[in-house]
Amino acid sequence: MKSVLKSCTAIAVALTFSGQAPAQDMLQSLGAGEGEVNIIAWPGYIERGETDKSYDWVTGFEKETGCKVNVKTAATSDEMVALMNEGGFDLVTASGDASLRLVAGKRVQPINLDLIPSWKTVDERLQNAPWFTVDGVHYGVPYQWGPNVLMYNTNVFKEAPKSWNVVFEPMDLPDGKPNKGRIQAYDGPIHIADAANYLMAHKPELGIKSPYELNEDQYKAALDLLRVQRTLAGRYWHDAMIQVDDFKNEGVVASGSWPFQVNLLAAEKQPVASTIPEEGATGWADTTMMHVDSPHPNCAYMWMEHSLSPKVQGDLAAWFGSNPAVPAACKGNELLTDEGCKTNGFEDFEKIKFWRTPVAKCEQGECVPYYRWVSDYIGVIGGR
Questions:
Q1: 3-class DSSP state for residue 373?
Q2: 250 — phi, psi (to 5°)?
Q3: Distances, alpha carbon 194 to alpha carbons 176, 280, 281, 283, 349, in Å
Q4: Rounded to whole angstroms, how far apart are CA atoms 234 and 250?
Q5: How many C-beta atoms surround the C-beta of residue 44 within 10 A?
Q6: How far is CA 160 from the centre of its chain?
Q7: 18 pLDDT exceeds 50?
Q8: CA 156 to CA 173: how far, in whole Å?
Q9: DSSP 215-231
């Protein structure tokens, strides 16, 4: 079994939202494309048919607009924030634990929705979501959303695990062998929210109302649970493809994951499946956001409009195992099929606790801010 990673890809960013970031000037009219667009994206989010020729929403866009799509894959939200801070990019597919950091850090600009005709087709549940809408100003357009699932080996688990306890607490699994060394955890401080979500169900006396709003006692309990998990985890994963390999070749049998990895393994006829256990799940609602100093703003707007087409949304949802931001994509898509949205949990929106950036001021008063999550999670992974 490969040894546990000793470092985390997180970057410490202290945030306060005592006042909201002022709006930068937005583009007022669309001009000619600049010839290319540079996008930071999650693995599997922007495909040009290289893995499977059926999944290609880049080639047609390039031919139609003359904008060459350059993609930089990022494995964590913290990596995305770091890349946006460096600059040189036009767009990023940011999750909710990064999007408000980018707004507060003035790394992204408001979006002129008048330049995106397909905005009116976006799911109403997402149109004004608080992870990218600040004081009524929209800092992006929704892309996809979904849950963080529990992926498991079906040779070990003849029935789907009912609880996340298989990755948080020491135990023998259904094959009679211990889970130690055979489970994984996510290499990102936002994983603290997964522990908090588990504690919401199993230690109600802690009074946790949101896994992203934790007072000192609640936060300590989550860290203590993660220190137990540290003794069990064979690897902290952040690279989706490495996790796929670990399930195939390294004896990993259970881990929090994304539907993307589940789909890849299932396509190879590996013995894997996924479930959302009884405690529920955290999840992600990703937003295409535009850098404040975008070098190719016209191509960027063209891509945002393209990304909201029902064909792109449906093909992507089929490929990643996610849910489209445009409900019209749920019908008539050959790859997704008319049952695909239901299969991917389109009706479970209200059950998912979507990633958010933890801040110091919260509904219960004082909460542990994100920079503490970053430094403390690095300590957990390091065995402290």
A1: helix
A2: -115, 10
A3: 26, 10, 7, 10, 17
A4: 9
A5: 22
A6: 23
A7: no
A8: 7
A9: -HHHHHHHHHHHHHHHT
Query: Can you list the pairs that 154-160 forms with residues at least 24 positions away whose Cβ atoms lie under 8 Å?
Result: 154/271, 154/272, 154/273, 155/271, 156/253, 156/254, 157/253, 157/254, 160/273, 160/275
On the 0-12 / 13-18 / 19+ scale of CB atoms within 10 A, 168 is buried
Kindly report, residue by residue over 56-73, the tens digit of the pLDDT.
999 999 999 999 999 999
Rounded to an integer, what distance in angstroms lies between the CA atom of residue 183 and that of residue 181?
6
Closest to 126 (Cα-Cα) out of 315, 299, 308: 308
- How many other CB atoms sit within 10 Å of the CB of residue 242? 16
Q: What are the strands, taking DSSP E only, across the chain? A: 36-41, 68-73, 91-94, 133-134, 137-138, 141-147, 149-153, 183-186, 233-237, 254-257, 272-275, 281-290, 323-324, 352-354, 361-362, 365-366
Residue with tokens 């600059």: 87
CA–CA distance, 367 with 361 (Å, rounded to integer): 6
Helix ranges, 268-344 (H): 297-307, 310-320, 340-343
Report the residue count for the chain: 384
Provide the angle, in degrees to the nearest 10, between the axes of the packed helices 297-307 and 310-320. Answer: 70
**Mean pLDDT, range 196-208, rounded to an integer:** 98
Tokens of 213: 């709003």
First to last CA, the chain: 22
Which tokens in the block code for residue 357? 């950036």
Reading phi first (left if > 0) and then psi (alpha if -120 to 50, else beta), residue 239 is in beta
DSSP state of 379: H
In whole angstroms, what is the distance from residue 79 CA to residue 81 CA? 5
Under 8 Å between Cβ of 146 and 349: no
Percent of the chain residues past pLDDT 90, beyond the cut: 85
Predicted confidence (pLDDT) per residue in 84-143, tens digit: 999 999 999 999 999 999 999 999 999 999 999 999 999 999 999 999 999 999 999 999
CA distance to 207, 312, 326, 366, 367, per residue, from 79 (Å): 32, 25, 27, 27, 24
Check residue 181 and give its pLDDT. Answer: 97
- In the prediction, which pLDDT does 278 show? 95
